[in-house]
Prior knowledge:
Layout: H1 2-40, E1 45-53, E2 58-67, H2 70-78, E3 83-93, E4 101-115, E5 120-124, E6 131-134, H3 137-143, E7 148-154, H4 156-159, E8 166-177, E9 194-206
Antiparallel strand pairs: 1-2, 2-7, 3-4, 3-8, 4-5, 5-6, 8-9
Amino acid sequence: MLNFELRQADQDIRRTRTLLFVTAFIALALVQAVQLVQAAAPQRFALHGPRMDTETGDILVRLGVDVDTTDGLGDMLRDGAIMELTIEARLERVRTLWANATLSEKTLTALLRHNPLTREFSLTMPGDDTYIVDKNLHRLFAATWHKIVFSLGSLTLLQEAAPESAYRIDLTISLRHAEVPPWMAKTFLFWSWDVVEPVSIVIPFTF
């Protein structure tokens, strides 16, 4: 009876060791999979010439948005990721003795995804729900997000102050997962909602 109990205990120990080994192997595989995705993923924004102009009678912001590697971004989209670009903009009159006066604020969003059936990438422009498609992500960005233009209001917002007053436009740009990507559905190891780190830009000007 004692020998049977010892054999049973030995089998239990072996089963426990096997279970621990399999669990550790699966955990390591998941970590490596996440690291591979992150290695291929873009690391930062590549912004093109954010500037302000008033040629049309409005306070317009013009900028181009891209990432440092569209290939890595494309891989994530093909794997089922859906991403949301957000641009937060605030127009302020700069004051020295008081806090800056906010004249206008706007938040714009756009979606980016991949259709596995048509093998096309599709995105919307900030503030517009119409999808634009192309099988080449770099070409799609060049025709769309490289040419973002939006208004922060009429020039009358600036004409109420004294001439040559100082102003600034604060921009915060982020690219985040709109939902949990398929490869992270069962684990959240080392994962962030941000696809790349958000960036903040200040455009100073006088009017």
